[in-house]
Amino acid sequence: MFYGATVWDPWLIVAQIFCLQCLYYLTLGLLLSILVGSRVSRMSLVYFFDYATVSASTVTGWCVIASFLLSSFAGAGYLLLLIERAKKCLDFAATVYIVHLFMCIVYGGWPSSITWWVVNGTGIAIMALLGEYLCIRRELREIPITRYRSNV
């Protein structure tokens, strides 16, 4: 893969955003079902989009917080797989969390909990910084050059 002058491809960008958002919510759903599903009688979208469930005052709230933070670690891995460029990681991570903010606003109104803002701010920082670190590590790897020796 060569990283020279790239052509602006809006369909690729939209597809990457869509895939990243879907993978983020699939991971969040899996983690919520494991961590929160064992504590509540019925899972619902409340745990995804309602800011009141992100609470540090209950054990279930801590499980929701852990789910969000662990999904941001997974999101960094998705950035490595889908985006592959360190300079684009912050843009795509911010897009994931801005879309999540809009969905939360539509579902339950403006998030007025400071805990929600701290958890999501920490999540975007983890996803962007770890994603950039992983992408930089990949970009700085040596390029293997094979040499063929002829048996003369």
Automatic annotation (TrEMBL):
The keyword Transport applies. Pfam families: SYS1. It comes from the Eukaryota. GO terms for biological process: Golgi to endosome transport; Golgi to plasma membrane protein transport; protein localization to Golgi apparatus. The keyword Mitochondrion does not apply. It is found in: Golgi apparatus membrane. The chain crosses the membrane at residues 12-36, 56-83, 90-110, 116-136. InterPro entries: Integral_membrane_SYS1 (IPR016973), Integral_membrane_SYS1-rel (IPR019185). It is a multi-pass membrane protein. Keywords: Golgi apparatus, Membrane, Protein transport, Transmembrane, Transmembrane helix, Transport. GO terms for cellular component: cytosol; Golgi membrane; trans-Golgi network. Belongs to the SYS1 family. This is Protein SYS1 homolog.
